[in-house]
Amino acid sequence: MMVPHLMSIFSKSSQEISGFTVMIYQFIILFLCFFSLGFNKSIKIMKLTSCYQIKFYYQKSVSQEFQIKFL
C-alpha cells in the first residue's frame, strides 16, 4: 500500500523541481541578454531561445524521471 503512495509523492516533487529549475534557467537567460544586448533585442532573443531550450530541458527532465522510476 505504501509503495504507490511514495511513488506519487516522488513524481510530484520531481515535476515541481524541474518546473522551478526551468523558471530559474529562463530568468538567467533573460538577465544575461538584458545586460549584453539591451531591452528590445533581449526580448526577441528570449522568445526564440526560451522555446527551444525549455522544450529540450523538459524532455531531458522527463526522460530522467522515467529512468529513475524504472531503475
UniProtKB/TrEMBL annotation:
Keywords: Membrane, Transmembrane, Transmembrane helix
Domain of life assignment: Eukaryota
The keyword Membrane is assigned to this record: yes
Source species: Halteria grandinella
Sequence intervals crossing the membrane: 20-39
Name of the protein described by the UniProt record: Transmembrane protein
